[in-house]
Structures are given as C-alpha cells and as structure tokens.
Design goal:
Blueprint (H helix, E strand, L loop, with lengths): L3 E3 L5 H10 L4 E6 L4 E7 L2 E7 L4 H11 L5 H14 L3 H7 L5 H20 L5 E6 L14 H15 L12 E3 L1 H6 L7 H8 L7 H7 L4 H14 L2 E3 L2 H12 L3 H18 L3 H34 L19 E5 L2 E5 L15
Antiparallel strand pairs: 1-5, 2-3, 2-5, 3-4, 6-7, 8-9
Helix pairs in contact: 1-6, 3-13, 5-6
C-alpha cells in the first residue's frame, strides 16, 4: 500500500515515525501552498532535506558568511566551481579547507531540524513516500536519528505555540529607527545586543537562531519583545508575494476532483496512455527543477559579485515546455518559478 495522502488526515509526525520504525529508504515529498519539500531517508534516518523555496546551499553560504567562516570572495569562487563541476557545496568547502567537516555538519544538522520543525506547523498539504536508493553523502555523512528529530521538533512546536501568529521561522525582520537607536544601549545585555545585531532585513528567524548562541524559543521570544517595543518590524513584501501565489493556486482537492475523472476516461479508452503521460510529466518536472537549481546558483553568484539580486535573470533559460521562467525581485530576496505543464503561472502545477 502506497504511503501518500493529506497532512490533515495523517500528521507529519506520524508519517516520520512510520518511516523510522519500518526503516524505509527513499524520499518523502511534501507539498503545501507555498513550498515543495523533499526529505530523504536512509534506513529510517534523515540524511538531507531540500526545499524549493529555501535552497540549502544558499542558506548554508549565507550562514558561513555571517559567522565570518568564509569571505564573499570564497563563496563566489565555491559557487562558480559548483556550477562548473556539479559538486556539492559542502564537499567543495571541505576540499578547499575553508571549513572543517565538524563545523559544517553541525550547521547542516541544525538546518535539517529547523526545516522539519517548520513543516510541523503546516495545516494543509499532501505527502507521498517514494522508495528509492538514498546513499549517505560520503563527504559529510549526515544521518540524523528520526526519533531525536521528532522529539526535538515537537518540543519546539509546543514552545512556539505560546507566540503563535507573531512570527515563524521564515519571518524576516528589519530594525526601525528606534531599534537602530537602541542597538548600543547600555541597558541591553550582550545576548540581547547579539540578537538585535543579527536583525538586518535579510536573515530570517531560523538564520538568526543558527547564527546566535541561544536556543530557538529564547531567541523567538526576544524577537517578539523587540517587535512589541517597536524596535523591529517584519519585511512584508516577500510574504505578500508568497501569499498572493498561495491564494491564486487551485486547491488540491479541486485538482483531484477534475483530474481523476479525466484520467479514468483516458485509462478506459487507451491502455497505457495514462502511464506514458505521467512519465513525461515527471520527467519534465524533474528536468525543470534541475534548471531552476542552476538559475538560483547564478542569481546567488550575481548577488555575491554585485552586492544585490539582479533585476532580471542572468541567463535566458527556458523550462522543459519551452516557456520563460518567472522571476520577481523583492525586498527580501526574489521569487523564481516555472508555470509548469499548463503554462499558467500561480496554479497548482507551478514548479519552484
């Protein structure tokens, strides 16, 4: 029996527990209104996670920069090598001696836990587990105990319920005039100064947590206090763009109600045609996702070299259906997507 369904009916924690106890190896695809996340397992343990909206390499590079482990020049060179060789960012960093394996592993493990904790907050979405070979990365070798992630994740979610609705791990804040004035105030302790200094209009909450010396909940509570004092404010444009995308998508239930009868008629009329169409669609989506990953690397490389995101895409690549990618620069970064097989942006088959 296939492991797939709705998050409303079968929670993510239950899904992870089932995969852990059955020691499954494969990829869990989780799709929600604003993101498409892939969690990879090897014998029940998590080895990596990939978010369409929050590319791991982009966040890793930014964290290493903020921690002053590498320089802008180092990152630009590593991204260029990655683009030319197709290698993993972490492996290249270790090979060049820019970061130790231990330091890199600690950062990546924190990223994985934070992203899964973020998934626990999803109220709607679908999941599907696809058995497949998932080798452990020979250069870094991360394999996280799923039970540990579950306990840690549920603990954090329980704590976060106290400040629910005021921020999420994705929220980006910037300082107000009052916040800039308070930055060097003698009334702030070293920890408060550290957290306030990391509010820069670019770091989201999860990045501030990763860069600081405190735990998730303590830092989040502190950010809420800064917000209530009027020292910081959320960067809203990026959130508004994502909200409009989410609003304009067809609900998953509507897609199913339309697609199932059509596919059923095709299956009854022409044997095997449905399988062929599905295979072509899967190939197109996979290939387009790969092109999108390359484009994101070009955008990040441009930012490293020019100091800001480009007004338009550096290259004129097209998706597997011959259509231009949709790119929009925002105050908090950018939105990049393919309109998918139907060619219509902001519908249920968009690819991020």
């Amino acid at each position: 029996m296939a492991l797939e369904g709705s998050i409303k009916e079968f929670g993510l924690a239950d899904i992870l527990q089932l995969i852990y106890y059955q020691k499954k190896t494969g990829m869990l695809l989780i799709e929600g209104p604003i993101d498409r996340v892939k969690v990879y397992f090897n014998e029940g343990n998590v080895v990596t996670i990939k978010s369409a909206r929050r590319p791991e390499d982009n966040r890793l590079g930014r964290i290493l920069l903020k921690k002053e482990i590498i320089t802008e020049k180092d990152l630009a060179e590593v991204l260029e090598e990655q683009k030319n060789t197709g290698g993993r960012l972490g492996a290249i960093l270790i090979k060049r001696g820019l970061v130790t394996r231990e330091a890199l592993t600690e950062i990546i493990e924190r990223q994985i836990i934070d992203q899964i904790v973020h998934l626990f907050s999803w109220k709607e979405g679908t999941y599907e587990f696809l058995p497949q070979g998932v080798p452990v990365d020979k250069d870094i070798g991360i394999s996280l105990d799923t039970q540990h992630i579950l306990m840690e994740g549920l603990r954090i979610v329980d704590e976060w319920s106290v400040i629910e609705g005021m921020l999420t791990l994705d929220t980006i804040f910037r300082k107000t005039g009052a916040g800039l004035a308070e930055e060097d105030s003698p009334e702030l302790d070293d920890f408060e100064k550290e957290v306030l200094s990391l509010v820069d209009g670019e770091n989201d909450v999860s990045t501030i947590v990763e860069l600081s010396s405190g735990d998730d909940f303590a830092i989040s509570k502190m950010l809420v206090q800064f917000l209530e004092r009027g020292w910081i404010e959320p960067v809203v444009e990026g959130a508004e763009v994502r909200e409009e995308i989410a609003k304009s998508r067809l609900p998953y239930s509507m897609i199913i109600s339309i697609a199932v009868p059509v596919l059923l008629l095709i299956a009854l009329g022409v044997s095997g045609l449905t399988v062929v169409l599905q295979s072509l669609d899967m190939f197109g989506r996979a290939s387009t996702s790969s092109i999108l990953s390359s484009l994101r690397e070009e955008v990040e490389l441009y930012r490293m070299q020019k100091g800001g995101y480009p007004e338009r895409l550096p290259s004129s690549s097209r998706d597997e259906w011959g259509r231009e990618f949709i790119y929009q620069k925002t105050d908090s970064g950018y939105v990049l997507l393919s309109p998918g097989p139907d060619g219509k942006p902001h519908t249920g088959d968009d690819i991020y």
